[in-house]
């Protein structure tokens, strides 16, 4: 539970202590500057991936290794992803697996080790793909990567064809009730997870009852912006300062998925049962409002015929909040929620106009073309930042 | 110029749409996705290229206008050196050939960096001044709208239907 102002808040550093961030996050971001000089990066061919996987499994002592049905998976603006079947003498029937591998630079530079840790921790809590191998430094694969079991399901109903990048802009219609309920329940389970007693050694939690949860994120994304900026954007810089000066207190940090939205969950047809919550690469310990605000972003939602905005194409905003409060026991403070909406719009602007375009400019991604395409949406987030800061300032003026 | 830029872009689009894309096997998803995005990019560039210098000249004018507001009396705390450099870039912006896209872009970079420095440092350790906040938000409102119109062709903007045509936006600049 958070509030924008709390006199009881403990002080942990200054809002302008730019180095106050998780060490592993810092390491990954700084390593990118070294990787940047190794470009350009070219998308892996099927033959190259097959060779990488064969080498990996032989190094693990498997005999009679066969890699078949290798398919590049759709999407993947951040990581190169391949589904494949592994057969060997100990498993002639074979297993269907997914390889998720880092290009030199991507729209989000993250740690496969953290991703593996959190997915292992969440196994049995919410549906997640089981991690069977992780190479967080790229020692074996040649670049950081992880391998999970293949999960069946779809990210959108098969009868729905119209959608944008990453499932954005989709409406679920008849599926909305079933999926919306699970969408909320799984988020509540994630936020209720006992992270303090889990093996999350690559994570560092912000101190409770401080501004640190928010400031860790501001420091993460402003660090990224300084490394990646192509052209100065005054609104991005203004947002950074505003976010530092208005950081809320987080009383009880929770596990935050950080990309919880349409396109990042899978379900079975026709039951509608969730089979996986995907894309944990940005997860961290933080404020529960952050996930709510992310799910609610304008770009991830659609409007119903009656004009109601549907969060991630599923359910109206007010219903989403009330159902979440009931399922989680967490209180949603609307001022704090708006702060995190601004933080998330800032983060998206940094991703779209900073990291994505920098990776494309350096020719260091497997989908440079996708990144420059996504960059053209950056102004949508800038407009959101302007509107939301104006709303926050107007609310402050009314309170005063 | 013969052949002209429009003709060559249209030829590239036709080749991609009618020859290259149909020749890519359905299971080659990356290649198909990239071919379709290439078509999208080129189609948008074809609509934009004639107006690119005019668009960026408008971007520079907006940034100069913001820089002038930042130097106004009600915004205090700008370092003397930064103020002098801002004045220098503003003066140069009034003399350059605005049809020279590379020159305009370079000036946007230079002025943008100075504006950023002001936003981050002005008045600290105190809070952002209301005047500075309002100046940047007003600029941001205008510039983000211009950019949304400029890139409306990608249809990534969820509110694309409410945006005017590029020609109307430039006429109102």
Topology of this structure?
The complex is a heterodimer of chains A (400) and B (173).
Chain A: E1 2-3, H1 23-36, H2 46-59, E2 66-72, E3 80-88, E4 91-101, H3 112-122, E5 131-135, E6 145-149, H4 176-192, H5 212-228, H6 234-245, E7 249-250, E8 254-256, E9 265-267, E10 274-277, E11 284-286, H7 288-295, E12 302-303, E13 309-311, E14 315-316, H8 317-328, H9 334-361, H10 368-375, H11 378-399
Antiparallel strand pairs in A: 1-7, 2-3, 3-4, 4-6, 5-6, 8-11, 9-10, 12-13, 13-14
Helix pairs in contact in A: 1-5, 4-8, 5-9, 6-9, 6-11, 7-9, 9-10, 9-11
Chain B: H1 5-23, H2 29-48, H3 52-70, H4 80-93, H5 101-121, H6 130-150, H7 166-171
Helix pairs in contact in B: 1-2, 3-4, 3-5, 3-6, 4-5
Strand content of chain A: 15-25%
Mean pLDDT of chain A: 93
The rough form of chain A would be described as globular
Largest sheet of chain A: 5 strands, antiparallel
What portion of residues of chain B is helical? 55-70%
SS-derived structural category of chain B: mainly alpha
The count of domains of chain A is: 1
What is the CATH homologous superfamily assignment of chain A? Aminoglycoside phosphotransferase (APH), C-terminal lobe
- What is the terminal separation of chain A in angstroms? 23 Å
Oligomer: heterodimer
InterPro entries (chain A): ACAD10_11_N, AGP_Transferase, Aminoglycoside_PTrfase, Kinase-like_dom_sf
Keywords (chain A): Transferase
GO molecular function, one term (chain A): transferase activity
Protein name (chain A): Phosphotransferase family protein
Q: What does this entry look like structurally?
A:
The complex is a heterodimer of chains A (400) and B (173). Chain A has one domain (2-40, 152-399): Alpha-Beta Complex (Aminoglycoside 3'-phosphotransferase, Chain: A, domain 2), CATH 3.90.1200. Chain A is built from eleven helices and 14 strands. Chain A has helices spanning 23-36, 46-59, 112-122, 176-192, 212-228, 234-245, 288-295, 317-328, 334-361, 368-375, 378-399; strands at 2-3, 66-72, 80-88, 91-101, 131-135, 145-149, 249-250, 254-256, 265-267, 274-277, 284-286, 302-303, 309-311, 315-316. Chain A has a five-stranded antiparallel β-sheet, sandwiched between helices. Residues 1-9 and 161-165 of chain A have low confidence and may be disordered. Chain B has 173 residues and is mainly alpha-helical. Chain B has two domains: 5-50, no CATH class; 52-169, no CATH class. Chain B has seven helices and no strands. Chain B has helices at residues 5-23, 29-48, 52-70, 80-93, 101-121, 130-150, 166-171. Chain B is elongated. The interface between A and B is large, with 43 and 43 residues. Chain A: It comes from Sphingomonas chungangi.
């Amino acid at each position: 539970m958070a509030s924008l102002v709390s006199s009881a808040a403990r002080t942990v550093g200054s809002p302008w202590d730019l180095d106050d961030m998780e060490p592993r996050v810092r390491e990954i971001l700084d390593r990118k500057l070294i990787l940047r000089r190794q470009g350009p990066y070219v998308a892996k061919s099927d033959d190259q991936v097959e060779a990488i996987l064969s080498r990996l499994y032989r190094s693990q002592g498997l005999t009679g290794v066969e890699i078949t049905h290798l398919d590049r998976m759709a999407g993947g603006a951040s990581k190169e992803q391949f589904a494949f079947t592994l057969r060997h003498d100990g498993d002639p029937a074979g297993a269907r697996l997914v390889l998720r591998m880092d290009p030199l630079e991507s729209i989000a530079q993250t740690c496969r080790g953290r991703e593996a840790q959190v997915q292992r921790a969440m196994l049995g809590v919410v549906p997640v793909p089981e991690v069977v191998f992780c190479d967080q430094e790229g020692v074996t694969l040649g670049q950081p990567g992880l391998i999970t079991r293949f999960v069946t399901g779809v990210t959108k109903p098969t009868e729905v064809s119209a959608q944008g990048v990453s499932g954005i802009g989709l409406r679920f219609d008849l599926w909305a009730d079933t999926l919306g309920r699970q969408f909320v329940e799984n988020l509540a389970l994630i936020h209720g997870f006992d992270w303090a007693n889990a093996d999350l050694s690559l994570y560092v939690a912000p101190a409770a009852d401080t501004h640190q949860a928010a400031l860790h994120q501001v420091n993460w994304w402003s660090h990224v912006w300084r490394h990646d900026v192509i052209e100065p954007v005054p609104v991005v810089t203004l947002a950074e300062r505003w976010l530092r000066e208005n950081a809320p207190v987080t009383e009880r940090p929770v596990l935050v998925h950080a990309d919880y939205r349409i396109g990042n969950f899978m379900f079975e047809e026709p039951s509608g049962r969730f089979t996986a919550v995907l894309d944990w690469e940005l997860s961290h310990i933080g404020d529960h409002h952050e996930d709510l605000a992310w799910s609610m972003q304008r770009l991830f939602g659609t409007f119903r015929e009656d004009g109601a905005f549907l969060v991630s194409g599923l359910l109206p905003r007010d219903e989403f909040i009330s159902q979440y409060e009931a399922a989680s026991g967490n209180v949603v403070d609307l001022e704090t929620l708006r702060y995190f909406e601004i933080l998330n719009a800032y983060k998206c602007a940094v991703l779209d106009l900073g990291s994505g375009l920098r990776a494309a400019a350096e020719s260091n991604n497997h989908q440079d073309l996708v990144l420059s395409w996504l960059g053209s949406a950056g102004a949508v987030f800038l407009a959101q930042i302007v509107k939301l800061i104006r709303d926050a300032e107007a609310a402050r003026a009314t309170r005063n | 110029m013969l052949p002209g830029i429009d003709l060559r872009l249209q030829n590239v689009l036709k080749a991609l749409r009618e020859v290259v894309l149909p020749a890519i096997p359905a299971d080659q998803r990356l290649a198909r996705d990239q071919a379709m995005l290439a078509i999208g990019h080129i189609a948008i560039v074809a609509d934009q290229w004639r107006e690119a210098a005019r668009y960026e000249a408008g971007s520079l004018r907006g940034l100069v206008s913001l820089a002038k507001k930042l130097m106004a009396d009600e915004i205090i705390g700008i370092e003397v050196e930064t103020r002098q450099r801002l004045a220098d870039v503003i003066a140069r912006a009034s003399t350059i050939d605005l049809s020279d896209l590379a020159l305009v872009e370079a000036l946007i970079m230079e002025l943008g960096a100075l504006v950023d420095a002001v936003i981050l440092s002005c008045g600290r350790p105190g809070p952002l001044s209301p005047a500075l906040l309002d100046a940047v938000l007003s600029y941001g409102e205008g510039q983000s709208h211009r950019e949304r119109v400029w890139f409306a062709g990608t249809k990534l903007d969820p509110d694309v239907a409410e945006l005017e045509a590029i020609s109307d936006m430039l006429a109102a600049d």
